[in-house]
Amino acid sequence: MLLLLILLQLLLLLLLQQLLLLLLLLLLLLLLLLLLLLLLLLLLLLLLIILLILLILLPLLLLLLLLLLLLLLLLLHLLLLLLLLLLLLLLLLLLLLLLLLLLHLLLLLLILLLLLPLLLLLLILLLLLLLLLLLLLLLLLLLLLLLLLMLLLMLLLMLLLLLLLLLLLLLLLLLLLLLLLHLLLLLLLLLLLLLPLLLLLLLLLLLLLLQLLLLLQQLQLQLLLVVLQLLLHCYYYYS
User: Fold this and answer.
1) Coiled-coil region(s) at which residues (predicted)?
2) pLDDT at residue 74, as a whole number
């Protein structure tokens, strides 16, 4: 009967040892899962930061495209105004040429008047034409001045608009940088909150592993004691 009890004790100890080994394997698997969770959290945080940066950069790119379109439109307006100025200058040149021709005609008429007194009416008509041409020249000069003033005003307005847009862009950039900083701070706080918890879990698991190892050692000692008891029993029995 004593031999049977010793054998039963030995079997129970072996079973306990196997169970402890299984628990050790499970704890190791849990440790690996926790490490994988840590890595996944870090990857998710990195992906979130990248997505936020992309979402912030897309509106900036759209604003830059809008600014480029506005600049192109301003350049087109300037080119059109320059073309108008050139046309007006050409008209002025034509009027000046006409004036020169009329002056030549007047000179010819004066010469003819010295010879023929009947050309006074023609001379008066030519003088009237000269006056009209002078008035047209004055009007054209006034138009040119007005166009130049309009050009200057347009340029000033364009510069003001560009300055306002640049200021808005700077403000947007500052706001976006502040948002990024806040988001990064929040992510860091989350990491700081999550990492200690995970580290505590890891420490607890390690402590459990140590306790299981100690239990395994105790079981091995008990197994040795049971084997020694069995050997002693067999020795006394056969002696």
Assistant:
1) none
2) 78
Please enumerate in sequence order all residues whose Cβ is within 8 A of that of 222, keeping only pairs 6 or more positions apart, or say none: 13
120's CB contacts (< 8 A; 6+ apart) are 113
Domain borders along the chain are: 2-238
> Kindly report the CA angle at 111 between 110 and 112, in degrees rounded to 5?
90
Region of 60 on the Ramachandran plot (φ > 0 left; ψ -120 to 50 alpha; else beta):
alpha
Give the closest residue to 88 by CA, choosing from 129, 138, 48, 143: 143
- State pLDDT tens for residues 106-123: 777 777 766 666 666 777
Token digits for 54?
């992309």
The reported pLDDT for the residue numbered 138 is: 84
Helix or strand (DSSP H, E) at 1 = none
Q: What is the pLDDT of residues 165-221, one digit of tens each?
A: 878 887 887 888 788 778 877 877 887 787 788 778 878 877 887 787 777 777 777
60: tokens are 């900036």
- 119 token code pair: 């050309």
Determine contact, residues 24/213, Cβ cutoff 8 Å: yes
pLDDT at 181: 76
